[in-house]
Structures are given as C-alpha cells and as structure tokens.
Amino acid sequence: MESLAECAKGTLRRKKAELTQALQARISEHQRFMLRAFMEDLEFVERKIARIEETIRARMAPHEEVINRLNTIPGVNQLTASTLIAELGVQMQQFPDAMHLASWAGLCPGDCESAGKRKNTRTRKGNPHVRRVLCQAAWAAAHTKLDPERTLQEWVTHYPTTLRPKLNPRLQYGLLRGSFVPPQEIRELRELTRYRVKLLGQRNQVHNRIEKLLQQANVKLSSVATDILGVTGRRILASLLGGNEDATSLANCAKGTLRRKKDQLAQALQAKLTIHQRFMLGEFLDDLKFVEGKIARVEETIQARIAPHEEVLNRLNTISGINRLTASTLIAELGVEMQQFPDAMHLASWAGLCPGDCESAGKRKNTRTRKGNPHVRRVLCQAAWAAAHTKHSYPAALFYRIASRAGRNKALIAVARHLIVIAYHLIREPVVSRDLGENYFDSLHAERTKRRLVRRLEGLGHEVILNRRHP
C-alpha cells in the first residue's frame, strides 16, 4: 500500500499517510477485469474528446473575437461560448431583439392568465442545447461569490436537524425483512450482464448516428439494405470513408442477396459526402469498432462465468420467447437458488410484474404495477413480445385474449408474468417447459365455444351441421 501511495503527485504528496490508509484493500479478479474495462473506456473517450476539441478550436478560430467577448460574461467559459456560437451563429438578424432570443431558447416564463389570475408560468421547451449550457453558466455565476472556506462540517453544525437520519420505526423493532443479496459469484455475473446492456445501447446509439449522417448526406442505404452495418453496409461505408463516391463501384460492394439489388443500390448511393461528413463518419466507425470489441470481450467473459449453470440455461431456453441472452440475464439477476422467494407469485411481485391492487368502495381504481427490478422486467417484456408473436403458442393466445379487452400494454405484462412464473419452476426443478398450445382456452369450455361459433355462423345466414371427427 505504501508503494501505491508513492504514486502521488502534486499536492497529494502531502497526504501520503492518508492515501496509505485509504488504499488498505484488495480487489478481486473480477473487479480487476471491470477496472481494466472502465479504464479502456476512459482512455478511448478522452482521445475522442481531444480530437473533437481540436477540430472545434480550428473551426472557431475565425470567431475568436466573439468568443473573447462572451468570456467576459460571469459564469461563461470557453466551452459555453463555443456552444453558443455554434447554436446561435454570429449574426443576430434572425432575432428582432433579445426577448425574442430568450423566448426561442425557452428561457421566458409562460403567461397563462384567466380572470386576473396567473395560472401557469412554465417555460416553453425551446432549444435544449442553449438552455442546458446557459443553465450551467447561471449556476456557476450564482456561486461565484460563495466563501470557499465554508466547509461541510460548518454547514452540518449550522443545520443539525436537516441532515439527521430518520430511521423507519419498523426497522428499530426488527419488522423489516432483509433485501435479496445473491452470492458473490452471481453478483459479479449480474454486473457483467448489466454492463453488456450499456454497451449494446452504445452500439445502437452509434448505429443511429451513422444512419442520421447518411440521411443528411442523401445516402439512402437503409432504403435498400435492411442492416446498414451488415457485410455489404460496412464495405460501402469503408469505401465512402476512403473517398469513393462512384455509385456503380459502391453498388459492386454488395454481398449475398443484395447482389440482386445492385441497380437499387446504385440509385440510393447517388450522393456526395462533404469533408465534415467524412470526418464524422470516420469517428462513428471508430466508435463502432471500439464498442463491438468491448462487447465481444464482455460476452466471452459472461459465457465463461455462466458455464457452471449451463443446465439451468438450457432449461430456460425451452420457454417460448426466451433466448440465450435473456436466460443469462435471468440467472444473473435471480440466481440459481429460489429459496429467497416463497413461491412464484412473490418472484413476480418482486420483479414488478403483478397488477396493483387499489380498491375503494368496491371499485378498483388503479392497477399500475410497482417498479420492481428494472433489469428483469425489461428482458421479460422483450421476451413476452417475442412470445406473443410466436405462431400457434399459448403465450400468443394469452396475449391476444387479454389485448382484446384490456389493451396491448396490459397483455404484454400478463405474458411477462406468465414467463417469470415458468422460469421460477424451471430454475427450482429439473424440468423443461411444455407449451399448452393455442387452443388451450377454447378447450377449457369446449361446448360453450362450439355453441358460440355456431351462433355466429347462423347469424351470417348459414345452416350449420356438426359431425364429430374420429381420430
């Protein structure tokens, strides 16, 4: 620990004793892996920020005089000034006066008055980028005259009751049950799966940025190719980045089934990229390569960690709508031991997949579900949507049966609740899922279903004669 404290630089060299005391800990192999991943993220993002900042400074050089004038405003720094110039420009002819500019930015109070009373002063939305940087600058300007010597201890002494913790009375008498804390192995797997979700979200963001850039450049690749980041899409993007703008040669990059659509591709690629658009495309492809590399490494680590639970994973895969990714997330969030949940209904309630029960005077007022575990709820709602669109299955029949009278949202939660009940039993017992079939609800009351269908046909003017089919 003393060797770690020797890494101190600057003013921290005076606090080597405190550093030695603060570093009295050992990190596990999993924590070292996650720390390495986060440091890679940090280094990559900082390199990107440095390149973008250098480009912005080069673009802002002609407006250096305006930036210097804006920097004289309290709370406005170089970053805020460059953002204001980028959003507003350096010509103010488009705004008749300062009040019009403030209203356009969403910084004027609303004026809703009726019968001499002001009812609502909510501001309009305005430009979110200008509003954000100006609110940050306003906060900095409002705190420029604070006494820096005023410490937290002085504040606590001045307001002792404000920070005083208030304990729940039930906790004092031992009436609260402890939260579910899985074993360390499952906690580490849970951290990896949640990190994977963040990385997949970042990949989707990069995909959307590339699509927006192509649309701005009038490159209609997505009108022909389903996936702009497929094999053909990546070859075309690499050619565009290299400066190739010939539509015919770009269309020749097609692979697979897209080779039949070379004419449509050539027509969709009739566009020219500017220097700025090519620069941004290079940055986005760099982001994509970095994020996909991290996803591959994290996925490999998850598969290695989940290998001891392969049997449970295979059982969960037998549920309609659940794939390997969903099953691994369920194991990471719920664990492989179900003793912490007395029954499947408790698990569904913990996940936030049970309808609310608010009843007064014999009337049900609110059936909103509780928040529950957002990670379990998310993957199960995705699985429920997939199961609801699986043909000839019980979840599809359940979904459309409830959606016809309660709406698709409530039907989706009902199917998700059905899936988590099945998952509870499959994790707890060595059994596989068996689908009840699309005719399950009809077979519950076969005679009633038969009479109802006969009446409908007779109402349409048909004479119905039923003969039982022999097996």
Write out key terms for the chains shown.
mainly alpha, globular, Helix Hairpins, two-stranded antiparallel ribbon, single chain, two-stranded antiparallel sheet, 4 domains, 471 residues, 58% helix, 22 helices
Q: Could you describe the 3D structure shown?
A:
The chain is mainly alpha-helical. It has 4 domains: 1-54; 71-108 and 123-141, no CATH class; 184-307, Helix Hairpins, CATH 1.10.287.4070; 318-357 and 367-439, no CATH class. It has 22 helices and 4 strands. The strands form 2 sheets. Strands 1-2 form a two-stranded antiparallel ribbon. Strand 1 and strand 2 form a beta hairpin. Helix 5 (78-88) runs antiparallel to helix 7 (128-142), helix 10 packs antiparallel against helix 14 and helix 19 (394-406) runs antiparallel to helix 20. It starts with a helix and ends in a 12-residue tail after the last helix. Residues 146-156 and 158-164 have low confidence and may be disordered.
Write the layout of secondary structure elements.
Blueprint: H1 2-5, H2 16-22, H3 29-60, H4 64-70, H5 78-88, H6 98-104, E1 112-114, E2 117-120, H7 128-142, H8 152-158, H9 169-172, H10 184-216, H11 231-241, H12 247-251, H13 262-268, H14 275-306, H15 310-316, H16 324-334, H17 344-350, E3 358-360, E4 363-366, H18 374-388, H19 394-406, H20 408-428, H21 440-444, H22 446-459
Helix pairs in contact: 4-5, 5-7, 10-14, 10-16, 15-16, 16-18, 17-20, 18-20, 19-20
